[in-house]
Design brief:
Structural class: alpha/beta
Oligomer: single chain
CATH class: Alpha Beta
Order of helices and strands: EHEHEHEHEHEHEHEHHH
Strand order of the largest sheet: 1-2-3-4-5-6-7-8
Largest sheet: 8 strands, parallel
Helix content: 40-55%
Length: 278
Amino acid sequence: MALCLDTHCHLDADEFGLDRDAMIARAAQSGVSGILLPAVRAKDHLSVKNLTHQAAQLMPASCYTLGIHPIFTPEAKETDLELLRHAVIEALDDPRFVGIGEIGLDYFLPDLDANHQSFFFEKQLDLAEEFNLPVILHVRRSQDAILKALRSRKIIGGIAHAFNGSFQQAEHFIKLNFVMGFGGAMTFPRALQIRRLAKDLPFESIVLETDAPDIPPAWLAKQISHRNEPAELPQISSVLAEIRSTSIGQTQTICANNALRVIPRWATLLAQLPLSKD
């Protein structure tokens, strides 16, 4: 059975509050081996850790990252950075902790102050560099600014989540040991730019994600509730397989290996699990 990894799932979202256990069970039953749960606020580190360990009972390859999302920077204070640093130090002993994220820049939402979110982004990159950790990036209309920040540091790599930049920008991320996350947006036939990227980028530079409960795939778009969940990942992987003319199993395996390559602690975790020997 192929290793199927959801590299971006907000398991702690309020949308899962009523049926989180059932949702985890559905994901496991669908063939998802594990999820990566990125924190979005410094104060969420304990809940993110606990939920990841809960999910791991059914999806053993589950892991998490810690960070402050750019959308939450308006409420963030400088003391949150110190709180985050202490949380990271404590988490280093947890094999399911694998990096810093979700961090980045969002130039799409008009109410976000560019300088304020840049301050938190840069400080968190410093943290990733200090502890030699990969990062999970939120890149929305901010590719060039993020690349500039990355080039000024020695970041070991990571994932550019929900990538929607140009092919040339993707190449620059690849040179910095980043892979691109593709999920529900890719499943819409009219998403021509994203589908071109999914088809033409080197296969070793692509990972699968749901961004659940957000970015639902095309088959959920006409439903009253558009809530996305990790159980959709196998079908999302089938769309990528069709785009790239490969098998679903091969697609899932290649994408999983790509994620493990750029997130070394995740690879270490997998090496300790029985599923890595199947």
